[in-house]
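Hi, here's the filled form for the chain we discussed.

Project: internal
Contact: R.S.
Residues: 157
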Amino acid sequence: MQRLFIQAYNRMMENREQIIKDCETMRRALTDFAELDAEIEQQLEETQVVAELVKAVVKENASTAQSQEAYLKKYEALTERYKKAATELERLQNLRTTQRQKDKKMALYIRTLKKQPVVLREWSDTIWTVMVEKAIVHRNGEITFVFYNGTETKVGA
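And the returned structure, exactly as it came back:
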């Protein structure tokens, strides 16, 4: 496995400059939050508006005689709308957090890639740990090394 990793690493590093450029392009895409921030803002406004509507309906019910059946129907519809809006807001915020985390990982990967030797002559636990996401062993003995930037390199046994 170590010998095959060294082969895969050296093969991948032949394209180091292009890989770094590709990673930097991915980072720019990951950190372009303009559209996502606009969606989050819109969803936050929706959540706030619906919360105010729920408060108004409850207040109206407390101060005005009305059919409780009609009130409950209105209240439940607004509550459901609020839950959907809050769930979507949370999903969008989580997506933003995930993108930030991916960006940080990609930045670390780029820094690591720039620091590593172009040719690896012997096994390095450190390089293995910071560069390889996973290794897939095939039935025929070949191994596909998947690096953290998504690059896959298959080497034979």
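Let me know if anything looks off before we file it.
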